[in-house]
What does this fold into?
Amino acid sequence: MSALDIITAVLVLGGSTLALTAAIGVIRFPDTLSRMHAASKPQVLGLLLVLAGAAIQLRGQADVGMVILTGLFTVITAPVVANRVGQLAYREQNIRDDLLTRDDMLEFADAREPDTHDEN
It folds into this structure.
């Protein structure tokens, strides 16, 4: 067993563990915002670790480009999806207010409140 095989095994096992903890968090966390956090951050890092392990094993092959593209698309799209899910959950009031320490969305909405009176 070479050093690259050991590095690959560590990366794949670490990534799989992070993906498992993300799945457990999605099941166990109480509200949408907590679940969204669990579904995005550790899941993406876990996938990137598994892809890094795969890229090490595929070194020198044309498939490494696809592995890199997969990682890039995941890094680009996961935060956008998590943001949209969080906004939708907030708009639909599908959150637990007792778990929020500060409501940034409420402060942002108050700052953008347009004038409702007509000046004509």
Q: What stands out?
A: The two ends are 80 Å apart (CA to CA). The chain has a mean pLDDT of 82.
